[in-house]
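Note to self: user wants both folds in one dump. Writing first protein now.
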Amino acid sequence: MASFQATDDPQTGAPDAVGGPREFLYLVAPQSCVPVPGSAPPVWRFSRWDYTWLSFSRCSSGDPQIDLPLLDSVFYGTHTLTWAAMHSIAA
């Protein structure tokens, strides 16, 4: 089972993000993730934009009549998805 605990990288901040080996993005797109050297337990770094793109992809059914209400329920601000929204979509 995947976890949804990814956060902005504490050292570099967004768009760099970090997550553990059970993080959803690592499980579905491991090629997008880079191990953080010396991390224990293991942590992977990836681009927040990859997670955002994946979230948008997962909330689209291809039918604009269905997609608009779903996007309205997770969209935050003008062009930003919060981590909570992205985790909710991926979950």
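First done. Writing the second protein, which came from a different request thread.
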Amino acid sequence: MVAALKKLAVVATSQPHAAFSAFTQCMQGQWTFLSRSMPGISPLFQRLEDVIRMTFLPALLRRNVNDFERNVLSLPARLGGLGISLPQVETVNAHENSLRVSAPLTRLILRQELELDPREIAAQVMSLKSQIDEDAEKIQALKLKELTELAPEEMKLALKTTLEKGASSWVTATPLYDHGTVLHKGDFVDAIYMRYGWTLPDLPTTCSGCQSAFTLQHALECKVGGFRTIQHNEVRDVFAQVFRDAGHTVETEPLLQKLSGEGFEYKSANKDDDARSDIKVTGFWRELRQAYFDVKVVSPFARSYSHKTQKSLFQQAEKAKMREYKARIQEVEHGDFNPLVFTTVGGMAPQCQIVVKKLSEKLAVKQSLNQSVVAGWLKVRLSFALLRTTLMCIRGTRKRKLLNIDTNIDLAVSQARISY
């Protein structure tokens, strides 16, 4: 196992995303199986942890990690970690838990009581599994709370954003070229560094577009280069395509009807003659009724948002969109309106979560698939759309292209070409 891990570390230098997936989805299962099958072998995994800490992680992350960071990385992805567990710690009770879960089956085999209802035995096993998972979740949540209190301010903010629903979908996704879920080594490293508030490597000191000091937040705010528009449009187009796949008639950037003296409660309501929403869908909430959606992507790293909780940040963004469009769409278009608010790291606001759930249900029925599978796929697709466009904001060039026009054109040659 140690030798295989060292070989995987070599792969991680050029293909870190593939190596990370192989480690979390395959290799960890090997020592989990051993720890469940054999009692008292947890101390033997110390050598494995040494290789993970000193060889695999530096190859994967392009940096060494300290004890605090190693504990953060061991958390599950949904709690802000990478799921790279501590083998000598997290396998201590694995054998005992395995005995607890298999106890009802063991008693059944020893007693040979065939008249017992198999469904009752299965229910007992599931109950024991749920109890073990609940206990493990409480331990991990307590660990996260302790680590968050000890984290530096930059990492504390980053950890807060990783807990958003949908923000870790890209971490647990299997890298597949057919589904566009593969990150090259530069993107993978940038994504991990951004996830934990680490300083991204090889960033320029000044913005190539506006010459301001270049930071992560400036990269996510700078309008030169059009990357913010690209990010917005990418999310809009993903939603539009999935709406179509679910069997709806969809229009992007639909023009709203012009106003003819209508008044609205909020001054921030959009009253322009050329006002548009992002997406119009027929029959999404109610049969033959139009549903309108508008996308907003906010950066949780902005200084004005850093003191806000996740809940208040989403509430502010949703209310701004509702005040801008809801009354006009309800009263003039006689339609429904929902804002689709995301953070640049992939988090989804409450109304967006409701829309995604409803959309996944419709798509599951249309495609005859399991709803949970469709919901997971949709979250991954949106997560990668946001991640890739966020990385584009950071690494994309913003240099303005200047036309190189030669003013000393030979008129004779020019005239000859025209006559020709």
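Dump finished. Worth passing along: Residues 216-395 form one domain.
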